Backbone:
C-alpha cells in the first residue's frame, strides 16, 4: 500500500498573549490508501489542530512552526494558498462537528453544493446540478431535487451532516477528514451516519481520518488508531493493538475508565486521577507524568522517545515504562528503536 | 434493592408539561414536552432517565423540581404533595439539582465559597459566619477540592472541577434527593469516571437518592438501579437496569441499545445494529397513537389508533407497546 499522506514531525503553535501554546508538538504518522485512521484524545489534545494543519485552515494566532505534510509525495507545508486551494475540498476534504455552523445559512443547499463542484471540476452548471442531485441521493437524502432549494435551517441535524458529507465527497477526494462527525448527533442518528460513512468508504475507496473522543466510534470504524495527549502522539497502532494491548499508561487509563454496557454496574470505574494538562505549562518530560500512576524519575525530565513495540511500523508508543520493561531493545539506524516486551514476541 | 412496603421517596403521577409556542402574530401552539409521565423512585436508589434530545427527559427533571409549573399531574415527595406555597421551601431544601453545563451553571462573579454557600444562606443553615465557612470547607473536601480554593472564581477551574463545585452546592442543604441532569456529558472520558465514582461514593455516604438524566447509555447503565426510556414526552419502557439491557422489549429501546458504540473492536465488528430510518419527529407534530410508530420496524395500522398503555410484563418491567412478544 502506498503512502497517501505522510506527516513528519508536525509542530503547530498558537501564539496567544499569555504565551505559546504548542497544540501539536512533533506528530508523525502515515495514512495509507483506502484505510480509516482514528485520532482520539481529550479536548485540547491537539487532534483537531492536527487536521486543520494538514488542510492549512488554522486561524490566527495559530500557525505551523515546522514539520512536513506530504500528500502523494507533494509537500504541502509552505506552498502557496492558490496551490493549496486545488487540494482543499478536492483531494482532501473535511466535515466538521457542528453541521449547522458549517453550512452557510443564507444560501440554499444546492447553491453551496454546486459551487464546490463548479470550483473543482470541469463540469458546467447543468452537469454540476446533476452531480449535486446524484450526491444527495448517494448520502441517502430523499427528494434531492427539493432539498437543493432548501436552506440549512429547514433540515434536521442528521440531514445537515448528510449534506456536509455529500459536499465533502462531491469531488471524489482521496482523503476525507471527519472532525467529530457524530458528536452533536443522537445515538440513533449517529448510527445512521457511521453506517453511511462506512458504506461510502467501501464504495468510493477513499481514506478517512476520523477525529473523535468517543472510543466506541473508533472501535467500530478504524483500522488504525492514534492516541494524542497534550499535543503529543503517545501511541499509534492497529485498532486491536490499542484496545487489547495498549502500551501507553494513558491509553491503559482511558480503557479502564470507560463504563461498558455489558458490565453489571457493580464494578467501580478506575478514573485517571488529576486534571487535564495546562497547555501553557506542559511538563518538560512526559506530558502525562503528573497524572500517571507509574511515574519514574526520567519521566519528569526527559520526553519519552517513540519506540516500536515488538514489530517495526505496527505499534508505536512513547512511554519510558516500555523501555524499562523491555526484554530486548533493538536499535535500528535511522529509524525508531524496536522494543521487545517480555513474553510476547 | 428497596425494602418492600416502603413508601417511595418520590412519586410522579401523570406529569404533563406543555409549553406555548408562538407560531405567528396571533397564533400559538402547544409543545407537549412531557405528556403524562408516571414513575416512582425509592429511597437510596438511582433512577436513570435516557432518551434522545427533545424527548423530554430534562423537562421531566425540571418540572418535578417545580422549576417550571407543571401543566398537570402530581409530584409526591416523601408522601407529601409538592405544591407552590409554604411547603415549597422545605422541598427545595431536601431536593436539589446538578446541571449539565459546568460553565453556565456557576455565577462567574461569585467566589466558589459563595456559590457553595448559597443554599446555606437561603435556608438559614448556618448560625454565624464561622459555621458557614466551616460548612463550605467541609463540602469542598467532600467533593475533593481544597478549602483554599473557596476564595477563587469558577473560571479558574477545569470542567471536572467545576462540576465538583456544582455538586458541592447541591449538597450544601443536606438534601435527600438530587436530580443529576447530564452531569458528566460535558466532561472528558478520564474525568467522567472521576465524577461518576464520586457521585456513587456520596450516595453511599450520605444515603442519597438520585434521578440520573443522560443520553449516554453506558454511563446510565453503570450508575442506575432502574432505567426509564423516554421518547417524545412518554416513558416507553421502564425496568431494572440489568433486565433492560438483557431483555429490551420496546422496539425503540432495542434499536437504542443496539446502536451504542462499543469500545471494543471485536464486539463492534460483531454488533448487529438496528438502524432506525428517519429522524425524531418534531415535538410540535407528535404522531397519533404510538409516537414511535413512524420509525418503528414493527409498526402496524393499529399503532396509529391509540397511545399504547404502559403495561407490566413481570417484575416491574413496564413497556408501552402493543407488539411485545415474549
Residues:
Amino acid at each position: 500500500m502506498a503512502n497517501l499522506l505522510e506527516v513528519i514531525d508536525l509542530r503547530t503553535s498558537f501564539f496567544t498573549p499569555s504565551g505559546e501554546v504548542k497544540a501539536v508538538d512533533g506528530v508523525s504518522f502515515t495514512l495509507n490508501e483506502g484505510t480509516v485512521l482514528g485520532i482520539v484524545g481529550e479536548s485540547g489534545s491537539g487532534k483537531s489542530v492536527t487536521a486543520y494543519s494538514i488542510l492549512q485552515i488554522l486561524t490566527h494566532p495559530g500557525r505551523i512552526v515546522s514539520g512536513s505534510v506530504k500528500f502523494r509525495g507533494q509537500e504541502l507545508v509552505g506552498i502557496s494558498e492558490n496551490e493549496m486551494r486545488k487540494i482543499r475540498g478536492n483531494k482532501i476534504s473535511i466535515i466538521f462537528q457542528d453541521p449547522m455552523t458549517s453550512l452557510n445559512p443564507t444560501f440554499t443547499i444546492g447553491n453551496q453544493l454546486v459551487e464546490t463542484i463548479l470550483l473543482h471540476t470541469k463540469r458546467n452548471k447543468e452537469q454540476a446540478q446533476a452531480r449535486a442531485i446524484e450526491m444527495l441521493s448517494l448520502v441517502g437524502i430523499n427528494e434531492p431535487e427539493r432539498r437543493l432549494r432548501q436552506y440549512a435551517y429547514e433540515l434536521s441535524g442528521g440531514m445537515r451532516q448528510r449534506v456536509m458529507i455529500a459536499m465533502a465527497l462531491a469531488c471524489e477526494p482521496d482523503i476525507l477528514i471527519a472532525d467529530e462527525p457524530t458528536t452533536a448527533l443522537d445515538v440513533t442518528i449517529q448510527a445512521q451516519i457511521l453506517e453511511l460513512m462506512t458504506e461510502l468508504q467501501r464504495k468510493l475507496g477513499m481514506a478517512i481520518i476520523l477525529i473523535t473522543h468517543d472510543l466506541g466510534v473508533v472501535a467500530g470504524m478504524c483500522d488504525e488508531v492514534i492516541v494524542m495527549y497534550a499535543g503529543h502522539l503517545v501511541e499509534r497502532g492497529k485498532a486491536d493493538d490499542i484496545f487489547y494491548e495498549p502500551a501507553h499508561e494513558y491509553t491503559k487509563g482511558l480503557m479502564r475508565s470507560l463504563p461498558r454496557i455489558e458490565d453489571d454496574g457493580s464494578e467501580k470505574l478506575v478514573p485517571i486521577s488529576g486534571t487535564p494538562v495546562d497547555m501553557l505549562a506542559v511538563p518538560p518530560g512526559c506530558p502525562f507524568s503528573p497524572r500517571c500512576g507509574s511515574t519514574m524519575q526520567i519521566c519528569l525530565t526527559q520526553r519519552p522517545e517513540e519506540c516500536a513495540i515488538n514489530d517495526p511500523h505496527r505499534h508505536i508508543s512513547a512511554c519510558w515504562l516500555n523501555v524499562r520493561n523491555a526484554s530486548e531493545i533493538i536499535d535500528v539506524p535511522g529509524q525508531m528503536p524496536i522494543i521487545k516486551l517480555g513474553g510476547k514476541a | 434493592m428497596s425494602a418492600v412496603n416502603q413508601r417511595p421517596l418520590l412519586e410522579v403521577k401523570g406529569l404533563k408539561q406543555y409549553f406555548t409556542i408562538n407560531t405567528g402574530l396571533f397564533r400559538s401552539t402547544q409543545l407537549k414536552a412531557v405528556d403524562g409521565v408516571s414513575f416512582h423512585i425509592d429511597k437510596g436508589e438511582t433512577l436513570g432517565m435516557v432518551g434522545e434530545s427533545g424527548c423530554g427527559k430534562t423537562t421531566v427533571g425540571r418540572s418535578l423540581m417545580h422549576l417550571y409549573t407543571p401543566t398537570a399531574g402530581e409530584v409526591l415527595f416523601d408522601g407529601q404533595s409538592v405544591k407552590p406555597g409554604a411547603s415549597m421551601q422545605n422541598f427545595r431544601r431536601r431536593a436539589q439539582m446538578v446541571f449539565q453545563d459546568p460553565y453556565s451553571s456557576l455565577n462567574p462573579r461569585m467566589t466558589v465559597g459563595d456559590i457553595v454557600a448559597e443554599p446555606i444562606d437561603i435556608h438559614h443553615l448556618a448560625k454565624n459566619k464561622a459555621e458557614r465557612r466551616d460548612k463550605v470547607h467541609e463540602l469542598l473536601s467532600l467533593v475533593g477540592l481544597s478549602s483554599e480554593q473557596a476564595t477563587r472564581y469558577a473560571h479558574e477551574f477545569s470542567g471536572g472541577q467545576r462540576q465538583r463545585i456544582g455538586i458541592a452546592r447541591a449538597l450544601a442543604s443536606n438534601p435527600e434527593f438530587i436530580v443529576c441532569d447530564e452531569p458528566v456529558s460535558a466532561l472528558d472520558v478520564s474525568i467522567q469516571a472521576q465524577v461518576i465514582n464520586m457521585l456513587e461514593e456520596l450516595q453511599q455516604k450520605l444515603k442519597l437518592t438520585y434521578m440520573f438524566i443522560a443520553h449516554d447509555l453506558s454511563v446510565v447503565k453503570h450508575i442506575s438501579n432502574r432505567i426509564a426510556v423516554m421518547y417524545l414526552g412518554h416513558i416507553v419502557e421502564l425496568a431494572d437496569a440489568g433486565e433492560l439491557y438483557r431483555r429490551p422489549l420496546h422496539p425503540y429501546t432495542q434499536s437504542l441499545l443496539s446502536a451504542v458504540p462499543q469500545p471494543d473492536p471485536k464486539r463492534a465488528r460483531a454488533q448487529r445494529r438496528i438502524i432506525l430510518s428517519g429522524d425524531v419527529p418534531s415535538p410540535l407534530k407528535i404522531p397519533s397513537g404510538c409516537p414511535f410508530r413512524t420509525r418503528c420496524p414493527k409498526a402496524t395500522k393499529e399503532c396509529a389508533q391509540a397511545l399504547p398503555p404502559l403495561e407490566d410484563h413481570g417484575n416491574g418491567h413496564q413497556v408501552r407497546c402493543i407488539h411485545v412478544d415474549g
